[in-house]
Design a protein that fits this description.
The protein has about 300 residues and is α/β, with parallel strands linked by helices. It has helices at about 15-30, 55-65, 85-95, 105-115, 130-145, 160-175, 190-200, 210-215, 235-240, 250-255, 275-280, 285-305; strands at about 45-50, 70-75, 100-105, 120-125, 150-155, 175-180, 205-210, 220-225, 260-265. Strand 5 (about 150-155), helix 6 (about 160-175) and strand 6 (about 175-180) form a beta-alpha-beta unit. Helix 1 (about 15-30) packs across helix 5, helix 3 crosses helix 4 and helix 5 crosses helix 12 (about 285-305). It is globular and about 55 Å long.
Length: about 300
């Protein structure tokens, strides 16, 4: 049966544990110069409607290092850009590829693609979810803190796709998550409610609040993201005013645990959501976090693609 990753809820805690173990193994192998060609001969498609640095690079390098190939596709370069239906494109791609990563605007697009595909579909980012980012971030937190369950994680800023996937990931893995966002910019209520139902099974704690200082108090890890996401550029000036007190800076971090780590999914707007000194501080694991995208993408591709078209 074809498996997809459209949201983190497509994975169980056992799945995520397996991915974390395998990502650590693959990372160690790379550091030691040990080759792993587990996806030799496989071809991964990358269908991106949005710009990308880390998602594109990590998936292209991941499939290459596992012995496979990648093909980068823009809707403007294929017939989708001229009106070909998603369901038809999905069926055609299924005949050529072993997996597809899609980075687009509407979550419904990846869901429709997956519904008409016989190959694994991976959500590389939509306006609603960013599952690959958060699974990779779990690897960084695990490396730095030794566990996920019971960790106190705080997210500061816009209730966007990263916040949504963090909420889902926390619910699955038993994390204590606090989200601090301004009024009107909170995470989607339906996503929060679904996560709260899951949290009752796992012991996770999920809280949404407005005060960033309250949210960061006692945190093991503090996470932030840009105030203005792709497609919201016209709102940028207004958002700067609304979010000005939602900045990860020295004063805010004083309320976290002394050994708290700082995470950011990048790209960062230094001086807005995070100060330069915090980006460069010993507490920052931002660039290790970015590197871990590669190792987790390898583990994810293996999990989803290894048994396709054998």
């Amino acid at each position: 049966m074809t498996r997809n990753l459209l949201t983190i809820f497509d994975l169980s805690a056992k799945d995520i544990d397996s991915l974390l173990i395998r990502a650590k193994e693959l990372k160690a192998m790379q550091k030691e110069g040990v080759e792993c060609l587990s996806l030799k001969g496989k071809t991964l498609g990358l269908l991106f409607e949005k710009q990308s640095t880390r998602t594109r690079l990590s998936f292209e390098v991941a499939i290459l290092q596992l012995g496979g190939h990648s093909i980068y596709l823009s809707p403007h370069q294929i017939q989708m850009g001229r009106g070909e239906e998603i369901r038809d494109t999905a069926r055609v791609f299924s005949g050529y590829l072993d997996g597809i990563v899609i980075r687009t605007f509407d979550q419904k697009m990846v869901e429709e693609f997956a519904g008409n595909s016989s190959i694994p579909v991976i959500n590389g980012l939509t306006d609603q979810h960013h599952p690959c980012q958060i699974i990779s971030d779990m690897l960084t937190i695990l490396e730095k803190k030794g566990r996920l369950s019971g960790i106190r994680l705080t997210y500061i800023g816009d209730g966007n796709n990263v916040a949504h996937s963090l909420i889902e990931g926390a619910a699955v893995m038993g994390i204590h998550l606090r989200v601090a966002a301004p009024e009107g910019y909170e995470p989607d209520k339906n996503i929060v409610e679904t996560a709260l139902q899951k949290a009752r099974e796992t012991g996770a704690v999920i809280e949404v609040m407005k005060d960033p200082f309250e949210a960061v108090t006692g945190a093991d890890a503090v996470y932030t993201d840009v105030w203005t996401s792709m497609g919201q550029e016209e709102e940028e000036h207004g958002r700067r005013k609304i979010f000005r007190t939602y900045q990860v800076n020295r004063e805010l971090m004083k309320t976290a645990k002394p050994d708290a780590i700082i995470l950011h999914c990048l790209p960062a707007h230094r001086g807005e959501e995070i100060t330069d000194d915090m980006m460069e501080s010993p507490q920052s694991v931002v660039f290790e976090q970015a590197e871990n995208r590669l190792h987790m993408q390898k583990a994810l591709l293996e999990m989803l693609m290894r048994n396709k078209k054998q």
